[in-house]
């Protein structure tokens, strides 16, 4: 698994609230371009996000499924990314105190689990996954901190 982490300037519950709103995923997940639907039970295990990846007009419809959810702490997903296959993505949240403020250390771990993406050697695919996940965490922080600043 490839790991990347970032401190987000809000409490873990506020990060969890963003992760629980499946309609927000295209705002922070690199590559996700639009949501088509979100299962009513998201983020319960088995629930799915129905999304599209790519850039218009070259969009591919795909899904992401919850494998495990520990509210406020952990979300484990299987993300399908045709034509490359599927990946397991784990988001871990840990509360910390920095300068008297409660913040969240978000760690994202990801690697390809099936499909042609496995043919790409780990030393080649790992830097690309880490770069994408670093940007995903940057965007997630902006969404979480922006919502907190506006009281959303």
UniProtKB/TrEMBL annotation:
Query: Which InterPro entries does the UniProt record give?
Result: START-like_dom_sf
Protein name (database record): Polyketide cyclase
């Amino acid at each position: 698994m490839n790991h990347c982490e970032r401190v987000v300037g809000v409490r873990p519950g506020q990060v969890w609230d963003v992760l629980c709103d499946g309609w927000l995923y295209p705002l922070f997940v690199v590559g996700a371009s639009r949501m088509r639907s979100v299962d009513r039970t998201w983020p319960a295990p088995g629930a799915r996000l129905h999304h599209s990846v790519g850039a218009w007009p070259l969009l591919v419809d795909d899904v992401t499924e919850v494998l495990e959810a520990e509210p406020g702490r952990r979300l484990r997903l299987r993300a399908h990314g045709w034509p490359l296959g599927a990946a397991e993505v784990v988001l871990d949240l840990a509360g910390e105190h920095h300068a008297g403020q409660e913040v969240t250390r978000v760690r994202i771990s990801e690697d390809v689990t099936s499909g042609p993406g496995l043919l790409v050697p780990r030393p080649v695919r790992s830097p690309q996954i880490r770069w994408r996940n670093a940007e995903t965490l940057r965007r997630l922080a902006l969404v979480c901190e922006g919502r907190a600043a506006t009281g959303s």
